[in-house]
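Exam prep: given the inputs below (a chain plus calcium ion), describe the expected output before reading on.
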Amino acid sequence: MKQSPFPLKPFAMLVVFALAAPLASHAGSENRPNIVFLMTDDQRWDTLGCYGRTDVITPNIDKLATQGVIFDNAYYAVAICMPSRATIFTGRYFSDHQSGFTYPYNRTLSVAEFSDSYPARLRASGYRTGFVGKFGIRLENWSNTAREHFDFFVVGGTRWPEDDPGLNHIYRRDRPREERTLKKGDAMIRFLETQPEGQPFCLSISFDAVKNDRDQDMYAPHVEIFKDKQMWVPENWVEGRNERLPKVLDHCRGTYLHVARTSTPELYQKLARRFATQGYTVDTQVGRLMAKLEEMDVLDNTIVIYTSDNGRFHGSQGLYDKAILYDESMKAPLIVFDGRVDKKSRGRREDAMVSSADVAPTILSLAGEKVPESMRGRDLCGILAGSQDMAQWRDAVLMENLFLQEIHSAGVKKHEDIPGLNSEIIANNRSYRSRGVRTERYKYFIYFEHDPVIEELYDLKADPYEQDNLVNNPEHAELLKKLRKRTDELHADAIR
Ligand SMILES: [Ca+2]
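Solution:
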């Protein structure tokens, strides 16, 4: 099952020594790797060529995968924008940071909490840090806090360095909306062009593609490529409503938006083409990035990580967007390219169970930094190097959804008593908050605020599209017991 691990390379030894060394010794060190973290918005794992699709066009991302490590069992700890991004920044699970859209899980991350995030930690240790694109988290005193931790910052209309003529030219007012992904790519290149020699960098690019849903946000030359293309339809795409879903999901926007937006073949095809178009536009930026790193002669000391913030149903399961704990929403694309690895040892698929909570500790560890105690995700460096003792690795990952559409909508309408509404929703069985675990083979989750609780159990090997709920099957009673216990254990560990 595991690919042959490659032996510990000199770079891994460097990481080991760096971990043992005091932080101060890093100042001025030129050996620490550069890190580029690329994240898309709402890009389902299987809308990339390297995960098996043939109707999309993603040659640059596919090439990154063939030269790096591609993860086949990566899962989001939470699959909705804000809390997922908070998890990725901090290495913490949702029920720990509690920073999401809806009460009572709508905390603002404090200045102190963000100072433990991967970019803040790297800047404190001497990295030049950049962030471009969708920031997406609620952060105390956010503009000042961001200024403290980023040297180069482009988020909406907020950007610095303010006196950079190149940056101001990229964001000149006359550029059309359809160039939004190109502009982020331009800013990415600008960060690299202004990189001083002798200092490592950490650049995070957060594309708002591929979730844009309007024609004016599509880059016209790329729309042309897909305009007559018939897109692949997954086996569990549902025409019309899905009557198999638990009734509590009638209160989830995924069900009614599916009816409005993805429940006919025509609607599905149109949306799938939009996602493929934006995926291609992102892919071209990945190509620009790799060419630039090569041109700068820094590729052999640079790590490039590619992932997204959550998946997307696109009508699979009769759901529209994300958050609910089926694989289309929870499974993540994850590729780690490490330019320091010997060319002969590159290109490996990895089946270890990994979580989006692992991203931040892994980035810190790759940079030779100590992982703060607050981070509950695990360091993937051993897995990347092929030196991890898999008997000591986790057998399951925690997944959570604590978002409720009803509370979100009430907040938009300035509802006067959100805590009261929350209690009323729970008392009247309209809460679909859920948690569970994914193992390599099975999925278990529970709608824990429903009375009686609703549970689902799937054997992904026999039933990859999660159609046959085994929770009442006596043959799986022991497994059910075990996965209930695993869920409680992983949840307790996340909030300890
Ligand atoms: Ca998202």
